[in-house]
Amino acid sequence: MSQKPIFVIGTSSIDRIMILQNELSNRFNLIVIHPDIDEKAIRDENPELLVTKIARAKLSSVIQKVIDQKIDCAYIISSDMVTVANNQIKEKPISVEENKEFVKSYSNNFIETISCTCMIHVSSNKIVEKIDRSKIYFNEIRDELIDKMIARKISMKCCGGFVIDDEDLKQCIKKIEGSINAIKGLDNNTVRQLFDQL
After folding, report:
1. CA 11 to mean position of chain CA atoms
2. What is the model's pLDDT at position 147?
3. The pLDDT of residue 124 is above 80
């Protein structure tokens, strides 16, 4: 029986790792490599351009690590996402206070998540990428629910400072346009479409 090819996941996001494990583990041996970049050093006022620049930088970082570690892999993937609320880009909050401020602004409002996923077929050196956009509409989000979500110590690691499947926050969701996995950072259909392009 032939050995499965290696697929490198260039992320530190637990959600993205789990999504890709569910999608690809039957076809590939998966290796996780954390990109080593300073995301805050990469700026753009356009959210699509920002996530594209960061996803590409992550991919470049992971490619170099693959070369340095002499990993014989077939594919490498990277992704980045931001949240946009009231025409402002929201990345990971830098404090509990900023986290509260972010989520309070979503109350009776909507937010959009914008992500870019990049994938390279290593032997051909061909790179493809795709932008995904999703919207979440919220009813009122009470302060005590925000405090409960933040107390679980996950939201500070998430762009926009929210956790889509948080047991309290999800009670406040009125409507979602897009997929839950896309909002978590990586849509399964995007992975399949990128494979089709390679």
Report:
1. 9
2. 98
3. yes
Enter the pTM of the model. 0.94
Q: Other CB atoms closer than 10 Å to residue 111's CB: what's the count? A: 21
The predicted-structure confidence for 47-91, as pLDDT tens digits, reads as follows: 999 999 999 999 999 999 999 999 999 999 999 999 999 999 999
Element holding 177 (H helix, E strand)? strand 173-177
Alpha-carbon span 141 to 106, nearest angstrom = 8
Q: In this structure, are residues 141 and 163 in contact, taking their beta carbons and an 8 Å threshold?
A: no
Give the count of beta carbons closer than 10 Å to the beta carbon of residue 85.
Answer: 18
Q: What is the mean pLDDT of the chain?
A: 96
For residue 77, which of 133, 164, 11 has the smallest C-alpha distance? 11
Helix (H, G, I), strand (E, B) or coil at 117: strand
Q: What Rg do the C-alpha atoms of the chain give, in angstroms?
A: 17
Q: What domains lie within the chain, and their CATH numbers?
A: 6-197 (3.90.950.10)
